[in-house]
């Protein structure tokens, strides 16, 4: 049975699976709270092909701190490493 991690975690089962894989609590929570994180087979554009505003919106959805002060290259780095 999946443990209830409170209202801050939207998908407790996904969070626990990610923690068992060795992810940090923060990264596992971010992924578990992203609505489309478990979907596969999407046809998303490469980060380099997106505008800064599109990258900013994705960073906002994922919960990356300090995103408003980042340029396009910094947003791409943050999205790939968080």
TrEMBL record:
Where composition is biased (Basic and acidic residues), the residues are 8-24, 37-52
- Domain (Rho termination factor-like N-terminal) spans 51-79
Query: By its UniProt entry, which Pfam families does this protein fall under?
Result: DUF7218 (PF23855), Rho_N (PF07498)
Fetch the InterPro entries from UniProt. Answer: DUF7218, Rho-like_N, Rho_N_sf
Region feature Disordered, mapped onto this chain: 1-52
Quote the protein name from its UniProt record. Rho termination factor N-terminal domain-containing protein
